[in-house]
Amino acid sequence: MIRTSLPLVALLAAATTASAGAVHGIQPDDINRNGDPCVDFFDYANGAWRKQNPIPDYMDRWSRRWQSGETNKEHVRDILTELSARTDWPQGSAGQLAGDFYAACMDESRINALGAQPVQPWLAEAGAMQTNADLQRMIGKLHDVGVSVPFIVYANEDLHEPSKTIAHLYAGGLGMPDRDYYLKTEPRFVEARQKYLDHVAKMFELAGTAAPQAQQNAQTVFAFEKRLAEASLDNVQLRDPKRQDNATAFADLAKLTPSFDWGRYFDAAGMPRNAVNVTQPKFMQQVEKELATTPIAQWQTYLQWQLLNASADSLSQPFVEQNFAFNGKFLAGTTQIKPRWKRCAELTDAQLGEALGQKYVEKYFPPEAKARMQDMVKNILLAMDDTIREIDWMDDATKQKALEKRATFFPKLGYPDSFKDYKGVVVSRASAWDNLVAAQRWNVADNRGQVGKPTDRTRWGMTPPTSNAYYNPLQNEIVFPAGILQPPAFDLNATDAVNYGAIGVVIGHEISHGFDDQGAQFDAQGRLANWWTPKDGQQFAAKGQCVVNQFEGYFIEPGVHHNGKLVLGESIGDLAGAKLAYRGYLKSREGKGPEPTLNGFTPEQQFFIAWGQWRGDETRLETQRSMIQGDPHPIAKYRVNGPLSNLPAFQQAFQCKADAPMVRPAKDRCEVW
């Protein structure tokens, strides 16, 4: 996954080498022995596992990769249960903060007894607004606790001087996944709009609004958000960093939105009045129009809805169930709400992840694991060097720039060198709501505090227990939290073939993001700058177009296929990641000799099966539809079959014939890196 703005986050893979215990390889019982690796490798590598392990009711997809993530949450729960069992932690310590936050979240009876009471003062304040000044104060108050409406102000690196951190203005304020849900005419979007109107009305009713007024409120909210959606970039446009590169002098913000007092806003937020990057000027022009012309009563309704939407899962059970009915059942296809302990573990990690993370890494990430990852990263980075040097379509000048960029890659493994102290956060067992507000307020202030300062390269965009990874082009860093470096993702007793086929492909994937259609626009210092000759830039674009064309041909149901431009970056990452990991694996065996054949599979076959088994998600159709619309990651089947069908090493490993479905014809074969 690539991280270019807000702390996002994406998908990964896994395993490692022998230490103590029996050495093992892939999972032979997961393989569909009736399948053919040369016809449908996704079905072959993991088909038996999927058949024997249906998706749990509370999940939208399932595989060993997702199973391990849920197991990891059990580890987090065990830590939090142990922390919350003690009441004598020093006030403000990591143990007290994480333990009491979790304990209060788990007090379901108290939360249910309160109903909508915690959010009512906020709703009342929004409903009492009379003037533009009142509105601006309310927007600021909501921003203080992470409710980002109708725009978002967030600290990130300067696109042209990433050693400095500045404020960025992002579009926000939509209650559905993205703009297309408001605008497209296909039946699934029309249905989503009606479901959304019903959902908004029901949430207002739960908060005490009479049904007729709640329905009217829903119409007001939808009309307001639709106007914002019409002024927003779509998901493909959002992948182009140049479109979001709009440095703006602080004084010029007043020209863009004269109805908003930016000086007062920045002063109240404790941020210096420096230049900012306005990622979507057209969106902010629409915000100005709303500020200048939309009646305050409509703003009241809109802000109340956004507050309810952001708060729903932290209120009583009726709010949780209604929120799940739309976002879980309808959009994702899940049929059961996650257990409360799991939701509380996730929330504690999201809000106080580095307090919890200290305890997590002590127990689940030994020094040997970090050392092993460092070795794998080194080999796969060297494989990238070799690949760049051998490319025949790139001239020497561009190759030199590419090698310079590769040389500045900065890996982060496991956990930060120093953890956040959360100084000033007050957490108690008395109120889950107050704890959430306090933690949100601290995290927002922590981010704002970076504006105007030199970029702190020790900061992480994910918490240590997170089962994920990312690449940040502005710091040219690849980051692998301890949460993903767990069995079966990362296993010190697995063969090198399995390690490199799983976590190794993820490492290669994240490295490749530095050279995909987005990452390739950033130079060795993380600046948004062109380092390509015109000829090489054109050839690189043509190589990417091959991948676009390939994924445009992958359908999830009749008439619904991948958007090749949307998934281009992740698909380049998977394609190059598999190639780089395989080369890194071969490099790791230099001077050691070949690994053994296990369960009838050669080391080369184990490598590719490891990727197919780790990435082999079964995914609900509703989730596939949402992914096709807005997720830059392809569906799992095509993350497996798509890249491997381009790799000669895969064809050789399974002795596939030239006309096999898993072998793309030479004229159609894609290779970017």
Number of domains: 2
Per DSSP E runs of 2 or more residues, the count of β-strands stands at: 11
In whole angstroms, the N-to-C terminal distance is 17 Å
CATH topology of the largest domain: Collagenase (Catalytic Domain)
CATH class of the largest domain: Alpha Beta
Residue share in helix: 40-55%
Radius of gyration: 25 Å
- Major sheet attributes: 4 strands, mixed
Q: Rough shape? A: globular
The strand line-up of the biggest sheet is 2-3-5-4
The CATH superfamily of the largest domain turns out to be: Collagenase (Catalytic Domain)
Feature tags:
Neutral endopeptidase, domain 2; 51% helix; three-stranded mixed beta sheet; disordered N terminus; Collagenase (Catalytic Domain); 2 domains; alpha+beta; 673 residues
